[in-house]
Amino acid sequence: MAASGCKVRLQPSSSELTCRGDQTLLDACIQIGLPVPYNCRSGECGECMAKLVNGDVQELPGADPAIFTDTHRAQGNILTCMCFPLSDIVLDLPLLESETSSIRPATFNTLVQNVERLTPTIIGVAVETPWPVEFHAGQCFEWVVPGVTPNRTYSAANRPGTDTITFHVRVYPGGKIGDFVQSLSPGGMLELLGPFGHFGFSGNDWRPAVCVAGGTGLAPMMSLLDRAFAARDKRPIHLLYGARTQDELYCLDVLQGWAKQHANFTFTPVLSDEPAQSGWSGSRGLVADVMADHLGDVFGLEAYICGPPPMIDAAVTRLQDAGVLDADIRTDRFVQAKT
Ligand code: FES
User: Fold this and answer.
1) Where are the alpha helices (DSSP H) in the chain?
2) Computed over its alpha carbons, how large is the radius of gyration of the chain?
3) Can you state the percent helix, strand and coil of the chain, rounding each to 5?
4) Which residue would you say has higher pLDDT here, 147 or 222?
5) Ligand 1 centroid vs 158 CA: distance in angstroms?
6) pLDDT tens column, 290-308
7) Residue 316 and residue 325: Cα distance in Å, rounded?
8) Which domains does the chain have, with CATH numbers?
9) Closest residue (by CA) to atom 1 of ligand 1?
10) Ligand 1: distance of its center to the CA of 67 in Å?
11) Cα separation of 299 and 319, whole Å?
């Protein structure tokens, strides 16, 4: 390997780049703004899979064996998010036809503005950026926290174009990020790297959208909605937000306010494990099932789903059963960090 890194050529676009030895192939592509497919960046979704046409790579351990199997390996496939180059590389990796420009990720420092507990396990963090950081609604940022590796990734929960970014952080018992988040206070510093990701509304603002969010999957939905309302996007939008119990629902005041203000927006909270005698009069059950009950005519429908993978898989199945095309279903899988 040359000191500067390995040469990587992508087919069929003939795009060429250099990948450092300490960089995954995916990160090298993202770094120069190439519109390559990816989602989780941690071996959990399979969206970054490519065929290794030429060259050698070192694969990091940890890819989900249900997503990336030895059969894939035997066929010459790699997950670009899990591989470092050991030589010059040729990859069969078609570029996405992106509706939006790719923004090159950058590292920058922010000032913590506000920290608030949104639910017993979700903390909201708002940071002030040194300038209105460029990102697309629905994208995410890595938190660069000393002692926490790999970097944790959180979606922005507000629209781009301001000097504030808000995050919704799920805190797990014993999780490395939990102590850090709870130690944050206004005036503290937080280093961010980003933006990353392709999740976002299509440019088809005449087509109805059904949005399904679970847990902190609400964050990118809030960003999409905030951006859509600010841009006077008139597509009919129905958001179904799933949680287990009432105390896990958050941002209800904002969502209910938007539903009152915007005739094109409806909102249905759905609880799966709320006690029968609690007085909850809203929808009950799995959010994917409730979504299916609300679908009606799916002609022209686009679907946006964000949250834990089992919820996403259930919702995608319901949508496919109803006749929604795969090309009209966009997902953002939230995977719990392994360490
Ligand atoms: S498996 Fe590589 S981006 Fe998800």
Assistant:
1) 25-31, 70-74, 176-183, 218-230, 252-261, 287-294, 309-321
2) 20
3) 25, 30, 45
4) 222
5) 25
6) 999 999 899 999 999 999 9
7) 10
8) 6-92 (3.10.20.30), 106-196 (2.40.30.10), 209-333 (3.40.50.80)
9) 43
10) 9
11) 12
DSSP at 94: P
Which atom of ligand 1 has the smallest separation from the CA of 81? Answer: 2
**Is ipTM beyond 0.90?**
yes
- If one residue of 25, 45, 68, 72 were mutated to test the ligand 1 pocket, choosing by the most ligand atoms within 8 A of its CB, it would be 45
Q: List pocket residues of ligand 1, CB cut-off 6 Å.
A: 38-41, 43-48, 79, 81
The tokens describing 161, both together, are 């174009």
CB atoms within 10 A of CB 116: 11
Q: For residue 64, report the distance from its CA to the centre of ligand 1, in Å.
A: 10
Q: Which of 27, 29, 36, 38 to mutate to test the pocket of ligand 1 (most atoms within 8 A of CB)?
A: 38
Residue 248's closest CA among 267, 224, 270, 278? 270
